[in-house]
Protein 1
Amino acid sequence: MYEIRIHSRGGQGGVTAARLLAIAAFRDGKHATACPFYGAERRGAPVVSYVRIDDRPIRVYSQIRNPDLVVVLDPSVMEVVDVLHGLKPGGQVLINGSDAEKIQGYPAHAIDLTGIALRENLVVAGSPILNTPVLGALAKMGIISVDSARTAIREMFADERNVKAAEAAYTELVI
Amino acid sequence: MLTVATGNKAVAAAVKAVRPDVIAAYPITPQTEIVEQIAEYVTAGEMDSRYIPVESEHSAMAACVGASITGARTFTATSSHGLAYMHEMVNWAAGARLPIVMANVNRAMGPGWNVWAEHTDAFQERDTGWLQVYVSTVQEAYDTTLMAFRIAEHQDVILPVMVNLDGFLLSHSMQSLETVTLGDFVPPFHLPHAIDIANPAGYGTLTGPDQHFKFRWEIEQSMRKSVAVIRETEQDFAGRFGRNYGVAEEYRYEDADVVVIAMGTLGKEAEVAVDILRDEGVRAGSLRVRWFRPFPDLDLSGRELVVIDRDYSFGFGGVLAHSLVAKSRVEPYSVIAGLGGQEVTYDDIAGFVRDRKPGQESWFGVNGNV
Amino acid sequence: MTEIPKEEYILKCTSACAGCPSSLILRYVLKAAGPDTVLVVPACCTSVIQGIYPNTAMNVPVYNVAFAAAAACASGMSEAFSKAGKKTNVIVYAGDGGTVDIGIQALSGAFERETDFLYICYDNEAYGNTGMQRSGSTPIGARTTTTPGGKIHAKKDIDAIVAAHHPTYLATACAAYPQDLFKKVQKALSLPGSKFLHVLAPCPPGWRFSSEKTVAMGKLAVRSGIWILFEREYGKVTINGPSKAALVKPAPLEEYLAGQGRFKGIDQNAIDALKSQAAARALHLQREAEGIC
């Protein structure tokens, strides 16, 4: 079982990113669950969501304690949350922005998802949309296929700019 | 069709497939997504139902009662405080023999405000005459909601059914979902005592001590008959759609010396604990109780039991554990865990089994029981 | 004179008290509504009046429902009939407790949703079924079992509350004026949306007057101006015949009060309060009727 923990702030789309990732994994023929952990937090508070991907049906509902991958959609949460907590030895990190060096002890991939969203004009209520571009980056890392990333995004969003943003992230992420 | 959905959306999809005439509902976390989705279906014209956006849960059930007595198929959804607020009408629905189907997204009761999973909300309604079923996956939420309508409306039953799913853990978890082409699995139903203008009758008039018990006895008779209806419905569902659940779902149960018994998502998580214990050489199994009313008749003799209650009856004990004590004459290790969404992992459950103390009760997280 | 049908929908086996205004009102309500009608009745005197299972004195279907639930239950029923293409009248018949107090949330919700139904409140100004405890509709100065010294709070203005929901039709009536009541029920049922009828029900045991005086007491209520017969159709107010005359030259309120045991020993302050409330209501309605406010 491959376990992913996504860190974001309320309203940034971390929950939707988890759901999109689960759909994409499912379209790859895997079993997947997306379990957002809902706190009482409102917009702007640090939040986490979980995705599990496996070849067998998933029977676990508890929070992920030892993820294989940590995704940081908003690097500012690192000031208040230890995003590496419990990360498995050999686990990796995907971080929005350019500061991969902020991550110590694990391989970290940085990509400017915010920049991509702004370039594609993917802005809702003043906030850049990160949950669709991040799928492109995750596809580049081999977590899901590019085709399934596209399919998942199209299942949830009619606006094709979301797919373009994901494709841009796929192209730009250097592995 | 294969798709992906949350537990809430799966319930909404099942309701859409069954096409109730009237839906009356009031939003409450973590159920809201169900009624939002249904409102969207109705607004988009995908569902030919009347959606009544009532001003309270008491009114939600009252509106379902008013619609149902005309012979209409009805649905509502609620959670926790909403369920408590409609308690009077929950009694009314069953007493009036109305086959209303309700999804209850299990959530703790306040104070303080807690929006996370606990079964106490639904257990507080267990004596109302409703059938109660608890599900553990998105697929099961969908399948069981479909079955709930058929069971409720069966002429041997004609009682309301409450489908329970754990708040957030299942209501907001996204998993794969195979929707079905319903065909005639849920046939049009006939309410034998529906309002008939040509034959006016008084409903719920004053009923004296010489009559009241007869109505209660009829409810109990139907409750007993519902056991066969549930079995027959599940068999037909399995025949048509290939999925079978049973009144209680067994896992590595046959040769198990020690069995973990739980409900809802904890019942699934327990299966992972069973695998861990088996790897350690412990002959463990699990049993996930689905139907709580009517309560299953389980032969648990000769096994050690660890019962997990995500609920509590103050001054008494875990409701599931003591229901099993009473009905199956067993002496389980009773663990109270997961209240108000308290995190309980498969490792924790394996720990309950390793540390089991038959006949005793432990509260997870209290007095070092972590 | 309006021709009132001879058909009876309340049979001669009710458990009503002698002189009961509730069954008198309901008799004319059902004559006006006709057989394609379902009554929704929350806990109130009518729960008892219809008789004890397996008998019923009602010749239309009656759905008895929990105290606070009548308007919501009627919402569901109205939608279900409409979905089935039926034009059956859904009429809530509720007391003042079930309307102005415990049932007001469901009432407000149903009217806000423009539920197609007629809500009738028969108002005997106390919880009659439980033996005359105060309700929000009990007038100031009236003694009930829970206001043994006389009520110190004013009667809740349910008409203004319902009017604030802008229903299609709102009217008052009185058990003593069956022709007026009959016409108002017919008019209400001819209109779409939510309709409200508030009917004064002088209650012999509750108000403590002898049971042959129900009609006389109702007439006195109207003639004294403490109860005003009016209609508000699509917002337009009309003061009806008997009240028009009464508002020009009202009978003394003291005569109305003196005939009822519940006002025995009422002090002058309470009488003055009743008078000033009645005068203010009359003035407001007259202005509305003249289109001034």
Protein 2
Amino acid sequence: MIIDINFVGLIIASIMASAVPLILASCGELITERSGVLNLGVEGMMIIGAISGFALMTVTGSLIIAVFGAMLAGVLISTIFAFLTQTLITNHVATGLALTIFGIGISAMIGKNFVGIPGKEFPVLFEGLKDTIPLLGPILFGHSIVFYFAFALPFITSYFLKKTKIGLIVRAVGDSPESASNQGINVRLIRYACILYGGAMSGLAGAYLSMIYTPQWIENMTGGRGWIALALVVFSTWNPIKILIGAMIFGGLTIIQFHMQAIGVRIPVQFLTALPYIVTIIVLVVISRDSRKIRLSTPSSLGKSFHKDN
Amino acid sequence: MNTNLKISNVTKIYPGCVANDNVSLEFNSGKIYALLGENGAGKSTLVKILSGVIIPDEGKIYLNENNLNLNSPLDAKKNDIGMVFQHFNLFETLSVFDNLIIDSDEQRESLREKIDSIMKKYNFSIDLDIPVLNLSAGQKQKVEIIRCLIRSPKVLIMDEPTSVLTEQETSELFLSLKKFSEEGILIIYITHKLKEVMQLCDEVAVMRRGKLVSVSEIKNENIESLANKMVGQNLRTIKKKKAKTSSDQLIKITNLNFTSEDPFETNLMDINFSVNRGECLGIAGISGNGQSELFQVLSGEIISEKKSIEFNNNYIGDLNPQERREYLMAFSPEDRLEQAAIPQMKIFENVALNNFKSSNFFNNGLINENKIKEHSKKIISDFNVNTDNIELKSQFLSGGNLQKLIIGRELITSPDLLICFNPTWGLDVGAINYIHETLIKINEQNKSIILISTDTDELLKLSDKISVIHKGKLSKIMNTEEVTSEKLGILMGGAN
């Protein structure tokens, strides 16, 4: 059997494409969690982003408005979460779950009128360079701007957390909101900002799904990717680079198991579909075994409400 | 330049409690001031007001005649008031340098130089690039002090700074504080330890129940006079009679080891000791040297090899706490609200919790509520717990009352051995006195105590024998008469 080297390139590119929404949502949630807030509403924010992007694209015809509108929708819905958990001091877990349920419901309601409408083509960059380099050409070129942004994001996130003052403050707030507050840091403001940023990234992840990856609206089209994104954050031990690895493994296995099913490999379908989940978690657990490093990167105040008393 | 800090008619009221009742005080630089009072006297509230953490209901604060508006910690910092809190305000997972740069506007390099010069000047030595969680308590406190010094403060407030320090670290701290004072920084030193006030300070203000009761110069005071002002009544001094020498061995620990999987716990290495009937063995040490692991191993929260613990001629190393209680051991853990009692449960429910088998609190799996309540009332009156409502959730009891309740509960089975871990931590003088009397009484009834404590004075007062734990190892066991607090301090620091 001769394998066309460009075909391999295309498979890798499709794996990367399927990893994009996971990377976006995970990196957003990572910042939220690093500030000590556990937002389990990623799935809900993602699906709101998906419907908002698709609807705005259909109504306005503008891709730019659609993409930024989806991010704004993510910000708006996460504002609800931020208001509840930071201002009204509700429980993070319950509020996040409610947000997901709310998102799925409201997206289905808005989406009714958009079922069956074909999407628009999203412009890709460097299309012409695709055939210039074997194997690498299809991997590197001919993708949407969101794709490139997603693959830069883990590195930007890592740089932000490690090297910038605001990144340091975010980590400090996640480590000990009491100390941060006593140091004169506005804990609530920082946490609000981190939650809203997480919402924007989840919204973008959703828009990528409905506008670029599979350009159409299908009810519940995020299909649990929000939960996977959440799992990636935890199992990567809050490390953006490991999120990238995890998302690639997950995306890769999802694509490969499709192909295996197509070729008719004699393994039960259920096992194949479960494989990406199992392997991703195993791999991340194995690469994140160092309990010292875990202790150093885990936001100690994760999921705990902070209430400043006066 | 002279610094003058004036607190004028400050009042802060919480629901059900006046934390600061019309407090006025004046401080001048060049002196070290003590703010003395029991827990709940209002001194912490007052300094939190000075540092902008709490906003007073009424009253004003003047620094060099300027009225300060302290609405946030940031305001205090801007006005050159630095504060080192009792519970460190550090970010454990960040490096020392990150902790220092976080609230500074300076560039990395210039800040580093500044820190280096501060450390040189005051003889501090701390690695700036390791995470704070790897530092000892004394080092963490130095980081806090450096954090204040970076801003060249006019006022430096220290809130109970020695509660986590060794004797040596304490004297180092005092030297530094005296040096700061000579350099013109106004020092306010909050404590409930009278010895320290006498040693360090020039003037002392005593608070009680939110009110300022006296301001005086140290040279006109002594420990007794201060204690009486602080408590508001004359305290009995407790002295333990020397125990009858008994050779009747009750518990024997042989070659006990514990290796933790958690890298932030301490491993116990080759622990050997024995305690006779009627004896109190004190175990001293700086917190974090394996005390909590030792307590857990002794109580059965951590199970060890069967033969490593021999109690009353039975091997019990592999038994859990409940089973050990049936052999008449009793336990009073360090954290009263997390480990000893369940905060959301009522007093009488908590009383029932540790006596599943040996008591008649339960009949065929049903709760015998009347029995439990009857017994709870008895504990409350016998042990002087200041409440008459046994339906009260235990989280609403003060630390002292809760500790009395717990000890009372533990003594229900009239145990042969009581193991206590920091039984008076954070309690006020009155409650401490009561607990100490109770522990002495237990010894007088020919029962034994293992007292794990970070309070050296307490250990010297109550123990018949003393050992020091350092990095999971016990020193040799000494008779208390042969020991001084200086000697303990040296052993606690790891020297021989």
